[in-house]
Fold this sequence. Notes:
Elements: H1 3-6, H2 9-54, H3 60-122, H4 126-134, H5 139-214, H6 216-252, H7 264-275, E1 288-291, E2 294-297, E3 305-308, E4 311-315, E5 320-322, E6 327-334, E7 340-346, E8 349-359, E9 366-367, E10 372-376, E11 385-393, E12 396-398
Antiparallel strand pairs: 1-4, 2-3, 4-11, 5-10, 6-7, 6-9, 7-8, 8-10, 8-11, 11-12
Helix pairs in contact: 2-3, 3-5
Amino acid sequence: MKLQKLLPPVLLFIFLFFAVVPAFSQSTREDLEQRRIELREEIKRINSLRTTNKQREKSVLTEVEDLNRQIRTTENLLKVTNQQANLITRDINSNTNKIQQLRKELEKLKEDYGEMIGKSYKSKSQQSRIMFLLSSQSFLQAYKRLQYMKQYANYRKNQGDEIQERTKELQSLNSSLIAQKKQKERLIAENRETRAQLERNRQSQQSLIKTIRQKEGQFASEIRKKQQELTAIDKKIDEIIRASIARENKESGSTSRDTYALTPEAKALAANFASNKGKLPWPVRSGVVVRRFGSQPHPVVRTVTIESNGVHIETDEGSTARAVFGGTVSEVQAVPGSNKAVMVRHGDYLSVYNNLGKVYVKRGDKVSLGQDLGEISTNSSSGKTTLYFLMYRNMDKMDPADWILRM
């Protein structure tokens, strides 16, 4: 017997609703799990970089900045695992309701089947069936009775199959429920451990901040000095880009200094680049963003504002910068205060890879997606290996986080 014949319309709607819920939430569950894995990896990366830096870095300010990043990432991890636990709770409740409904259906099926078997037993003898057919008043009536007997036999088989199907479904849901409860227990245990680590980090943070507060003026002066150095680097990169645009335009017969004159091929490349906004790979194989694009309060000394035309990505010593998209190397130049910069042109878009100690390409080279451009320099005093990555459209600065996947 079909399910819709057994269930009233309201119960049928409920059953279909619960059947749809798991499919609807599957993508959400996968996204959350992927994000949880990424955050755990990021915490491991930050912790590894902090451990390495502690061996060389003596700046309390830098240690607090690193600790702040780890705390923020840990807080995000807690949010994601809480969302996962809440989603699992919803699924557990959904499955519990489905199990209750299936049990009611199974009881009803068994009851109907029992009654049917009882009736069948009373008239099961071959003689009774033959007499039933022979007592027919016409051939047509005998034919109809024969069809009825076949239908009744099929009905009995279908009822038995339905019971087996519902029993298997019930067993499967019970197994799923047990697995979901175990998964929730693991997430809760992980959250408990993560919260304990977060609390330890916050205590360390408060201790270091007390030290900073005692010499806040000195630290503020140190930050402003570093900001002046970065501003000078940004200015020099702007000058290099403007000169590069003017030179390439002059070669093509244009007098524009701030906007690339595009050939049809360059226009197509720019359109292709633009269509990949938000999907470009990171310019390093693994790393952590330690300073973001734009104007922002300093993460520790909040009275000081810092600015950046790109993002600073801390990575492992010996790491290389890699092209985020195919294009042509438009410039390879030394930038005072931050080693060398490689600029890759993608039509009228530019990706800039600054603070390279070694460079593997030269001006005019065609590069492909993911190609290594050079080795990122490691600061001898701090031990930090940091890529300064910038993106432009002509002379307009762009936030790399809008272009790079999950930055």
